[in-house]
Design a protein that fits this description.
The chain has 7 helices and no strands. The chain has helices spanning 3-19, 31-34, 43-50, 54-73, 79-86, 102-128, 136-155. It is mainly α. The N and C termini lie far apart (66 Å).
C-alpha cells in the first residue's frame, strides 16, 4: 500500500477519537446512579445534592451512617467514639469479620478506622463549621465512601434501614 495512503488512514483513525460526539445517554443518568450510590441513603441527601448543597448532602449522609451504626449496635454514643467502640477488634459489637485470623482482625480494625476517621475528617467539619463548601465531585466521592461503609455492613449480614 502507498505510504501516503497509510499515513492518511492513520490520521483518519486518530481523528475519529477527537471528532466523535459524546454520548448523550449520560446526561439522562443521575450522578448517584453513575456512581452507584447506596440506595438506602435518605432522599434528603439527593435533594440537597440536586439543589447544589453539596456539603450539607455529605453531612446528612454521614449522619445517616452514624445513626445506622447506633441502631445496629444499640449504643448511645455517636461519631468517633461510637465507631471506635463498636468496631474494636478485641470485642466488637458490630463484627465486620469473624475476627479469628490475623487478617480478619486487621480488616475489622481497618474498618474501625475508616468509620471513625470519616466521622472526624468528613462529617464533623460539615457539622461544626459554617463555611465548608464542597464541589459536586467532592460530594460524590464522600457519598461513595458512605456507600462502601454501608455495603460492608450489609456484606457482614446487617440490614440497612
Amino acid at each position: 500500500m502507498d505510504k501516503n495512503l497509510l499515513l492518511f488512514e492513520r490520521i483518519v483513525r486518530r481523528a475519529l477519537a477527537f471528532t466523535e460526539a459524546p454520548l448523550d445517554e449520560a446526561k439522562d443518568i443521575h450522578p448517584f446512579d453513575l456512581r452507584d450510590i447506596h440506595p438506602n441513603i435518605p432522599q434528603i441527601v439527593r435533594n440537597l445534592f440536586d439543589n447544589g448543597h453539596y456539603a450539607q448532602a455529605t453531612f446528612e449522609a454521614f449522619k445517616f451512617v452514624d445513626k445506622e451504626v447506633q441502631r445496629l449496635s444499640g449504643e448511645s454514643e455517636n461519631g468517633f467514639k461510637l465507631m471506635m467502640k463498636v468496631f474494636q477488634e478485641s470485642t466488637p459489637i458490630i463484627k465486620i469479620t469473624p475476627c479469628i485470623s490475623l487478617s480478619e482482625k486487621d480488616e475489622q480494625k481497618g474498618y474501625q478506622f475508616l468509620f471513625a476517621g470519616s466521622m472526624l475528617a468528613i462529617r464533623n467539619p460539615r457539622g461544626h463549621e459554617y463555611a465548608v463548601r464542597d464541589s459536586p465531585d467532592d460530594c460524590l466521592d464522600h457519598l461513595s465512601l458512605v456507600s462502601i461503609l454501608l455495603r460492608r455492613l450489609e456484606q457482614a449480614g446487617y440490614k440497612i434501614a
